[in-house]
Design brief:
heterodimer, A: 1 helix, 12% helix, B: five-stranded mixed sheet, 5 strands
Chain lengths: 41, 211
Amino acid sequence: MADYKLIGKNYTTPDIVAKVTGRARYAEDYRAEGMLFCKLL
Amino acid sequence: MPEGPIASVPGQESGVSRRNFIKGVIAAGATVSASAYLFRANIAGQDSALPGAVERLITLNVNGQDRRVDVLKHETLATTLRYKLGLTGTKLGCDRAECGACTVLVDDVPHYSCSVLTHTVRGKKIVSIEGLAAPDGTLHPVQQAVVNGQGFQCAFCMPGFVMATVGYLKTNPSPSRAELAHGISGNLCRCADYNKILDCMMDAADLTRRA
């Protein structure tokens, strides 16, 4: 086991703290100036 | 050989070519959906589709701060939080009170913010996922339990689950697993990670009691 970096060890995914505090941004959370929206009905 | 209905036959062109027809459909779809989207999210406070709708400046207590914000009469709390106050940690999943991703605490009670009008929460204390951690960055016990257990996959539903759990644990600090499952049953997870989420939230109840 000692030869592996992750297997058999605890680790914290790099994005989990940002997600759990609401700082992580999903696609819907981005806005650009003058952004247009379009959807097929 | 008979040709398919969409193949063009020389000398029999109709008034509307296939290409123009498709262009028209796309343009109509874009116009309709753009107006629908503005109506839903009201980005950058543009005029509403409703005649006579006026924004009014009100004060909201969000995460312990009094915030002045222009709000439309028919604006939902989720819209205000996300698009006026920039608190995008509150997610909009369904926008129709089905999924619970938008759950926030209003006076310590979990509410679907997509189905609460902002004007109805004036003078009340609103807490969203951004307001849980201490100012020095110390995570709330429920947040810490999520980090420890990593019960979520994409975590889009996680702010709602965390807020619902925080609210539920205020009414029942020592729930059984079944009680907790019932307590947060108003939240849906499309990754279907419920078992690990419940593991996390039982751990969260434990950490909250000891905090």
